[in-house]
Amino acid sequence: MSQRISSSDQRSLQGGFQKSFIKTQKFTLTSYHRITRLGQPLSIYIEGDGLSWVSRTQLSTDPTPLEPLVLELAILDRADNVAYIARPGQYSSTGKPDCSSSYWSNKRFSKEVIESMNEAISQLASQAGTKIIQLIGYSGGAAVAVLIAARRHDIASLKTIAGNLDPQAVNRYHNVSPLDGSLNPMDVAEKIMNIPQCHFVGSKDTMIPLWIVQSFVRKEGNQDDRSIRIIKGCSHIKGWQQHWDELQNKS
Question: Which residues, in sequence order, are CB contacts of 206 under 8 Å at separation 6+?
């Protein structure tokens, strides 16, 4: 087992979370969860892209995040029922990725990935005995959250953190290859316009610039950007834990 996995296992245990492996039609996904009151809303945190690339030209052999930022945010959540879902290939039960590397590169937002993550959410919601789901997605996990929200009718709220809400535009901005085989959240923006949303953007984030999130919310029809919150001092990966106790209940 890799050090990244063992340290996250230990951190989740300290936070009162249990680990499980969720079998879906395409993937086996890793989840950490704390369910204390059946029937109450379930907050689900969706992991980002993790260590998908080690450089601009070299694909990673293991996309498990180097730092468990999203898991730590989930642990900080004060809700009765909280779950975290890793993306395909991350935190594998064998200690090594159990799927094609295309699913953390060009197919990271593919139809089969979204369907699998959606299945996992349904299983967790059934376990919690609830039909009220609050989605929280970080970075690429925000793209996944949007694409899932457009498919469901039980999403009570959506929060994104440093959200990659237009992967095609982000890749053009960074001059890297397009994500052929992936879906784009921009194409379903109007479908989720009636879901209460809050999009957190770090003032020091150079990975996902503010205009990406603005383009998304304006595609929804919110021209005044009222669902966007700029968090001073946060970069793409730094500072979020310190602010999350305050931000988690923002709407």
Answer: 235, 236
Statement: residue 1 has pLDDT above 80: no
pTM recorded for the entire structure: 0.97
Q: What is the pLDDT of residues 115-169, one digit of tens each?
A: 999 999 999 999 999 999 999 999 999 999 999 999 999 999 999 999 999 999 9
Cα 136 to Cα 142: distance, rounded to the nearest angstrom: 7
Q: Is the dihedral of CA 116, 201, 150, 128 positive or negative?
A: positive
| Residue, of 49 and 94, whose pLDDT is higher | 49
Task: Kindly list the distances between the CA atom of residue 105 and the CA atoms of 92, 138, 181, in Å, as whole numbers in the listed order.
Answer: 17, 17, 10
Please give the structure tokens belonging to residue 190.
């109007």
Q: Catalogue all structural domains in the chain, each as residue range(s) with its CATH number.
A: 3-247 (3.40.50.1820)
Could you give the residue ranges of the DSSP H alpha helices within 61-180? 69-76, 111-128, 140-149, 167-173
